[in-house]
Amino acid sequence: MSKRDWHKLDESDVRVRPGKGTRPRSKRRPEHADAETAMVIGVDRGRWTCAMESGAVVTAMRARELGRTPVVVGDQVGIVGDTSGQPDTLARIVRVEERTSVLRRTADDTDPFERVVVANASQLIMVVALVDPPPRTGFIDRCLVAAYAGGLEPVLCLTKSDLASADSLLALYTELDVPVIVTRFDEEPAELRARLTDTVSCLIGHSGVGKSTLVNRLVPDANRAVGVVSGVGKGRHTSTQAVALRLPEGGWVVDTPGIRSFGLAHITPDDIVKAFPDFAEAAEECPPGCGHLGAPEDPSCMLDELVPDAPGRLTSLRRLLASRAGLDDYTD
């Protein structure tokens, strides 16, 4: 058509190609009905080590449709692809099941970003030495807070009892009814072993408290197992990562690296109080924003008035609340 004929065109003669944004897109995602269930036992730089129900240990990557969905040790996941566990094979994680519990922490009390350390553990084993290094009650309290808020049962495991008495430390936690296991270097941890059997439990503690010694006794081939997991991460050893180890008697123990800080910025006072049924109902009568610390910080707190028959337990609860508020004796 010549330029002289352009004036003869009208809008019915114009053909407009639809842009990409106008094309209908399906939001349907693959259901992966054939996905096999596995437990994540190690994580390292974009690769996940997973234990299949068949017993095979599989290396997997996160499927694209999961986006940035966090996948941590202890997660129950759905896996497709090569699940044989043979060398140089790679499967895909296509689904992360709902978690029954989470152990979270932040780098410090001002850090807004929480980190999930372990998922689906039923117990948090707080490994504390009675001497060398000396026990830090602030650290224990913070672990208790994280356990109560995350749905884990806390258990206090005291090591090096052949060097110091546990009586004074245990007196601080009598009112909380926290199970206690006392171990010593020259004896097998039989009570702890029985406690861990057929469960998923997480061990946490400072460096030097004897946690590695306990793990090596509980899982005789722990060093070999950790080596298998580290191979997934292109050669880096996993001493700085949580790793789940299968117990010979059944169950799993999640060994976490020695930590220097345990921030609780993600936990509110009400999260802690909810773990204590005898206080939770009374706390509903407190004014909004109450930290439940009592006077002088919270002079209008109703816990003193409504729960007068449990002064020792209330004192223990408020010590945990003070820990969460950063008013404890905890230091790195």
Automatic annotation (TrEMBL):
SUPFAM superfamilies for the chain: P-loop containing nucleoside triphosphate hydrolases
InterPro entries linked: G_CP_dom, P-loop_NTPase, Ribosome_biogen_GTPase_RsgA, RsgA_GTPase_dom
A Pfam family the protein falls into: RsgA_GTPase
Domain CP-type G: 110-262
Stretches for region Disordered: 1-35
Ranges of Basic residues composition bias in the record: 17-30
Record keyword Lyase present: no
Residue ranges with Basic and acidic residues bias: 7-16
Record flagged with keyword GTP-binding: yes
Keywords: GTP-binding, Nucleotide-binding
NCBIfam families in UniProt: ribosome small subunit-dependent GTPase A
Name by which UniProt lists this protein: GTPase
Organism, scientific name: Lentzea aerocolonigenes
